[in-house]
Amino acid sequence: MKYIDIRSDTVTQPTQEMREAMYKAEVGDDVYDEDPTAKKLEDYAAKIVGKEAALFVPSGTFGNQLCIFTHCERGNEVILDDSCHIVIHEVGASSVIAGVQLRTLKSDKGVMSPQEIRSKIRKGEQDIHFPSTGLICLENAHSNGRVIPLENMKEIYEIAKENNIPVHLDGARVFNAATYLNIDPKEITNYCDSIMFCLSKGLCAPVGSIIAGSKMFVEKAKKRRKLMGGGMRQVGFLAAAGLIALEKMRGRLYEDHQNAKYLGNELSKIPQVSVNLDDIQINMVFFTLDIGNADEIVSFFLDKGIKINAPENGMFRFVTNYWVSKEDIDYVIKTLKDFLSLKVR
Ligand SMILES: *Cc1c(COP(=O)(O)O)cnc(C)c1O
């Protein structure tokens, strides 16, 4: 059975073109630096985000954690938003891998206050009790579905530079952010020293993420990638799909955004739904359902051929992607209406 899957954009299957490219990929042992396809992907990825070098990594979590591990010393403090992916969804890895302390700030829908960041920066040499701030992490697009304004990134980056602190961007969906802002991704990555972005989300590659930064940073990260068990041998098979993700799939993300807007609009016409249409900036629609117990909704949808996640903190999240059409969205809306009419009876 073919399901409509709106749980996430991570569920995207590779396209036929990716499958063919993977089949035909020229590969070698990448730990020996001999995989031409991985090299090609890394060179192209670095160019797109305007950095000197890039590195293929197994996942977004791996990439973020590798960057923290590469920028920081053990015992450093990392300043970041308390609702970001690194804090909420990465299993506490920063304390295990890099051995750092996360200094979380409350944000306004993902937007941190530059002044507050400035006030939280610490230098170990100032006081025997203090750790040193080793890194500031930003996230754009934010996993709350919103895009952080460039001006905010710029202000934070300038404060970081004044204090000689690197900035890492969790750009899992940086191309969604660039699409929303209608700018070149380099305008975003201008304000970070390292970036991680995902190939395996809305871009449809089966596996993998990229980290990018200066040549020196990526050299150091490569050694630490090996330490973390991320030295992959004939990884070109995955890189081949990643190349198509970057070449062919970035330019169509606006379709997912349009579909998300359409979905949000249709949802907003349903009385039991609360949805903030201003929050729909990329491919994600967050909403609440005012119906008391919605426990059976996941299995109801599954019976109708639609995969959704149960709400998290009371919020549903539906995500559009390459494999979800406008007609599919009409069917999702119809299914929700059917579910609600059953609840009334
Ligand atoms: C998905 C995601 C990640 C992690 O990617 P995985 O490949 O799932 O490990 C990191 N940051 C953000 C903002 C994400 O949305």
Tell me what you see in this structure.
- The chain is built from 14 helices and twelve strands.
- The protein has helices at 16-24, 36-48, 60-71, 85-88, 93-96, 114-120, 150-162, 174-181, 185-189, 215-227, 236-249, 253-268, 297-303, 326-344; strands at residues 4-5, 53-57, 77-81, 101-105, 133-139, 167-170, 194-198, 209-213, 273-274, 284-289, 306-307, 316-319.
- α6 (114-120) packs parallel to α7 (150-162).
- The model has no long low-confidence stretch (mean pLDDT 97).
- The protein starts with a strand and ends with a helix.
- The strands form three sheets. Strands 2-8-7-6-5-3-4 form a seven-stranded mixed sheet, sandwiched between helices.
- The protein folds into two domains: 4-9 and 252-343, Alpha-Beta Complex (Aspartate Aminotransferase, domain 1); 16-249, 3-Layer(aba) Sandwich (Aspartate Aminotransferase, domain 2), CATH 3.40.640.
- α7 (150-162) links the parallel β5 (133-139) and β6.
- 42% of the residues lie in helices and 15% in strands.
- By secondary structure, it is α/β, with parallel strands linked by helices.
- Pyridoxal-5'-phosphate (PLP) is lined by residues 10, 59-61, 64, 85, 139, 143, 170, 172, 198, 200, 209.
- Pyridoxal-5'-phosphate binds at residues 10, 59-61, 64, 85, 139, 143, 170, 172, 198, 200, 209.
